[in-house]
Amino acid sequence: MHMLNNAESFSGSADEIFHLIETSKKILVATHENPEGDAISSAIAIGMFLKSLDKEIYLYDKDPIPLNLRFLPWAKEFSQKLPAEPIDLLIVADCGEIQRVGDGYENMLTINRIINIDHHFTNNNFGHANFVIPDASSTGEVLFYLFAAYGAKENKIEYKIGEELPCKAEERQRVLSKINKDMAICLYASILTDTGSFRYASATKNAFYIASILNQYDIAPAKIAEEIYETKPLEQYKLLSKSLATLELVQDGKIASMIGSKQMLNEIFQDNENQQKGMALFENFVNYPRSINGVEIAIFFKEVSFNEYRLSFRAKSYADVSKVAEKYGGGGHKFAAGCKASGDLNNLKKDIYEYCRKVL
């Protein structure tokens, strides 16, 4: 892994990644199941970068693209099926572990070359080449550094990852030569969503700096925010109403949780196919208990099958929820993490609350 205060450690990994890309033709780009803004935006940006290098691209995600992200360029290019033909190179974006790609990830392990690009400090470096920056705001920020490094390399401009771009307009333009307007939209959407609209601790000075650079591409930030945050189906609010009814506070109001159940989906959607699509509508419900005054840790229990749950954790200011997620084989960041867990919900909640108390 790399830290931005140690820029010298980046060059070797970046060069290795560029070599793998340049010597491959058919490239599969994948991200984690139940994708959100950073995952989808990053995968698309990688695809566009590869296309500019005349590569044959396949974009894969196990689950459908959420409605509020379908405005992104290339959003329709994703497939929920893996390509049948042999693949030269797999690039996985925004995944702490390759299992998060979802069912069928085992087939991906047969690909001879894998690049892992991420920003989760719990990343287990599963790639043959790994470019992981845990103090980056998002995978989109990581990609900005990579694309700038490639532009600098291609145009023989001196540029160190994590540093400000050259001051001279001509040199800066060459460093940014691999980023076009559509890529800028994706990278900005990535940073916007993973910083919670620049409200989370991940909204570092680097995140703001890169956002300002991307805004020079005339990306219309207000329009991007409108699409992401104000394009929600009515069914999502119906689900939210039911989920809010499960709100529970413990530990003197420092821990709050909500539930998203299969029964809620059954009551709103009439058929199994739409119920499965409805699963994605629970995304970000964890932020509602997080926003309550006095709450430090928020938990969302999403039922995926009988006694099987996907847990999302958010902390507000000091608790390290990644340690709780790691208890169940998950991971993430200090203030945002997730995992899968199984068992009776009441017993599971009891155990989770106890782990949360230990990190308060």
Give an overview in words.
This protein has 360 residues and is of the alpha/beta class. The chain folds into two domains: 221 residues, inorganic pyrophosphatase (n-terminal core) (Alpha-Beta Complex); 126 residues, Diaminopimelate Epimerase, Chain A, domain 1, CATH 3.10.310.30. The protein contains 14 helices and twelve strands. Helix 2 links the parallel strand 1 and strand 2. The radius of gyration is 20 Å and the shape is globular. The two termini are 27 Å apart.
Strand and helix map with partners:
Blueprint: H1 10-22, E1 26-31, H2 37-52, E2 56-60, E3 78-79, E4 89-93, H3 105-108, E5 114-118, E6 129-132, H4 139-154, H5 169-175, H6 181-194, H7 205-215, H8 221-229, H9 234-244, E7 248-250, E8 255-260, H10 262-268, H11 272-278, H12 287-290, E9 297-305, E10 308-315, H13 322-326, E11 331-332, E12 336-342, H14 345-359
Parallel strand pairs: 1-2, 1-4, 2-3, 4-5, 5-6, 8-9
Antiparallel strand pairs: 7-8, 9-10, 10-12, 11-12
